[in-house]
DNA sequence: CGGACAAGCTGA
DNA sequence: CAGCTTGTCCGG
């Protein structure tokens, strides 16, 4: 472009009649209002809806996304030109989805647009790979059925492989797959690639996804990946909590992916060995026949610790010691995280529990207090009346030493902070060990009750998820996979569900417990905290506000529509307000 | 959000 | 009344 042309470029604020005008959402969370800018002629071919740009605003330069093109700017506003094109951004339909998500999880639009944008600037797209044909063999009838429906929840036992489902979906057209972990996505991506299916693995291959791949796959944020001509959506292990963002806004990739499929009018399949109540409420359940599913769960040994030896408070039953001595690859799980200390009766060994809600209680000024419902009672055992309560607190470090001594084999310890997996056939760890190890002969839960009785409303579901993850490491009954569950609650539905390979038992019990108490998914909840929380919740209308407890409030509404409406109706006071919709840990 | 500008507080 | 803090407004 010569100096002559440059001189004819519009001056700031001048605006030629035929200049295009772009409406831009700026990347300033506090600024909800979009601003209009001129599209300079030399950038014309690079500016589309979704493009990432830099624009002048109030004397500085900010990032933003082109929301709309050729808009009618408000009168009497001198438009400035877009300063720079940063690169490709979210596809137009993802803007609507981001707006929906911002409302659903009471977050800001730019937050979701950032998630839907490439991790590094993308200036051009690679050529789309040519799809010859997807090598899909005979499709499993259940998987085929799932893909014929608008939305289905496919209960795949722990040892089942989701790969054929992904392949069958890919035969329909471009498929979005959301996996619970990047490693899972990576593994599936390489299998697909070996089969000749063009794959984009997110987040790295954002540009490849935008150019058009047959399968776009990744963990949580991949729910926002570009997928031109989307034909199917799959969410693997929908029950996994990692699908939900921990920081506020606490959006869930399962829900985003499902909404995306609904908007695109394409089939959405959620898979899980033990579906969440949320998913059961969302779509139709498809499950293998009882005997098939049962066989795909491992052999389960239940050690009833109360019956075996009521006086024992240690964690090493003879069965466990035998297992550890057997020379097999054994993973022992002991979740020592959580500040709560468990109290056990010194006479009968029973755990001290709340007489109202059944959760474990803590000693507080010589009385027992329930952390869930705040009920108090005298410090005596409910089973035998003894007032001799002992604190039971065991960590993986201690368990490792004990096991090594008892079994006479080297034992390694694995927690969330462990870097390299210890080179030992027997491992003891927190639940992190179940993510770090992918194969074992047996998994033993040293103290399943610490999970079952955790003072959280989702405790049973969360425990079932852990058991399912353990079941995946050891495989089905045919391969000899074993789970050892040490518990004082052998009739608990989680124990029975594992024993019978029947996760519906947990769902039924959970539903019966939560519905009368008004817990999700029968209601919609938000946890509101931070300095301005008091002022904010006081102004909420049409919802139930509970609290404060520890400086935080719980907001409850009959459904998410009502909750989102109420949360959006009140302007946010200045300061750090945290709103966590669908809190998992209450 | 962050700059601009206006209204209020302090000090000599 | 300068010089500074604090508050409110607004951006294209």
3D architecture notes:
With about 575 residues, this protein is of the alpha/beta class. The chain folds into four domains: about 5-85, GIY-YIG endonuclease (3-Layer(aba) Sandwich), CATH 3.40.1440; about 140-290, P-loop containing nucleotide triphosphate hydrolases (Rossmann fold, 3-Layer(aba) Sandwich), CATH 3.40.50; about 295-340 and about 395-515, Rossmann fold (3-Layer(aba) Sandwich); about 525-580, no CATH class. Helices cover about 30% and strands about 20% of the residues. The chain contains 20 helices and 28 strands. A seven-stranded parallel beta sheet has the order 9-10-8-11-12-7-13, sandwiched between helices. Strands 5-2-1-4-3-6 form a six-stranded mixed beta sheet, with no helix packed on it. Helix 17 packs antiparallel against helix 18 (about 505-515). It is globular. It starts with a helix and ends in a 5-residue tail after the last strand.
Strand fraction equals 15-25%
Shape: globular
Q: Describe the largest sheet.
A: 7 strands, parallel
Please, how many domains? 4
Number of E-type strands: 28
CATH class of the largest domain: Alpha Beta
Mean pLDDT: 90
The number of helical elements comes to: 20
């Amino acid at each position: 472009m010569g100096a002559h042309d440059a001189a004819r470029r519009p001056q700031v604020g001048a605006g030629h009649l035929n200049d295009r005008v772009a409406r831009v959402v700026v990347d300033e969370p506090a600024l909800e209002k979009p601003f209009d800018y001129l599209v300079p002629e030399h950038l014309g071919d690079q500016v589309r809806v979704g493009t990432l740009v830099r624009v002048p605003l109030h004397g500085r330069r900010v990032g933003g996304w082109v929301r709309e093109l050729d808009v009618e700017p408000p009168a009497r506003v001198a438009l400035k030109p877009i300063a720079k094109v940063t690169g490709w951004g979210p596809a137009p339909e993802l803007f609507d989805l981001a707006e929906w998500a911002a409302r659903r999880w009471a977050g800001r639009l730019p937050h979701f647009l950032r998630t839907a944008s490439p991790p590094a600037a993308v200036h051009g797209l690679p050529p789309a790979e040519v799809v010859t044909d997807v090598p899909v063999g005979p499709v499993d009838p259940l998987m085929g059925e799932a893909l014929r429906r608008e939305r289905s929840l496919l209960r795949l036992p722990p040892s089942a492989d989701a790969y054929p489902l992904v392949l069958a979906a890919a035969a329909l057209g471009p498929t979005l797959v959301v996996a619970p972990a990047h490693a899972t996505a990576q593994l599936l991506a390489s299998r697909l690639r070996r089969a000749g299916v063009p794959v984009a693995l997110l987040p790295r291959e954002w540009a490849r996804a935008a150019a058009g791949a047959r399968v776009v796959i990744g963990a949580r944020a991949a729910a926002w990946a570009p997928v031109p001509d989307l034909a199917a959506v799959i969410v693997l292990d929908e029950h996994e909590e990692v699908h939900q963002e921990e920081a506020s806004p606490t959006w869930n990739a399962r829900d985003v992916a499902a909404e995306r499929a609904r908007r695109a009018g394409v089939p959405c399949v959620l898979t899980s060995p033990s579906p969440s109540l949320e998913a059961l409420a969302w779509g139709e359940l498809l499950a293998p026949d009882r005997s098939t599913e049962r066989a795909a769960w491992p052999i389960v040994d239940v050690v009833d610790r109360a019956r075996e030896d009521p006086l024992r408070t240690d964690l090493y039953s003879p069965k466990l010691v035998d297992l550890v001595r057997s020379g097999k690859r054994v993973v022992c799980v002991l979740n020592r995280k959580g500040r709560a200390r468990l109290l056990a009766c010194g006479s009968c060994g029973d755990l001290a529990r709340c007489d109202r809600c059944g959760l474990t209680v803590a000693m507080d000024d010589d009385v027992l207090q329930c952390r869930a419902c705040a009920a108090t009672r005298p410090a005596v055992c409910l089973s035998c009346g003894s007032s001799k309560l002992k604190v039971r607190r065991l960590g993986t470090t201690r368990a490792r030493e004990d096991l090594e001594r008892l079994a006479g084999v080297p034992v390694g310890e694995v927690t969330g902070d462990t870097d390299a997996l210890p080179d030992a056939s027997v491992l003891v760890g927190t639940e992190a060990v179940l993510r770090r190890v992918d194969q074992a002969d047996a998994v033993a839960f040293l103290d399943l009750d610490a999970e079952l009785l955790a003072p959280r409303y989702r405790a049973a579901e969360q425990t079932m998820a852990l058991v399912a993850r353990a079941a995946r490491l050891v495989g089905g009954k045919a391969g000899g996979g074993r789970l050892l569950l040490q518990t004082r609650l052998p009739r608990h539905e989680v124990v029975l569900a594992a024993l019978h390979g029947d996760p519906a038992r947990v769902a039924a019990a959970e539903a019966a417990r939560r519905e009368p108490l008004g817990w999700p998914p029968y209601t919609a909840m938000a946890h509101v905290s931070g300095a301005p929380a008091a002022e904010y919740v006081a102004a909420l209308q049409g919802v139930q506000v509970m609290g404060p407890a520890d400086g935080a409030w719980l907001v409850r509404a009959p459904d998410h529509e009502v909750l989102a409406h109420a949360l959006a109706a009140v302007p946010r006071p200045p300061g750090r307000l945290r709103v966590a919709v669908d809190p998992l840990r209450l």
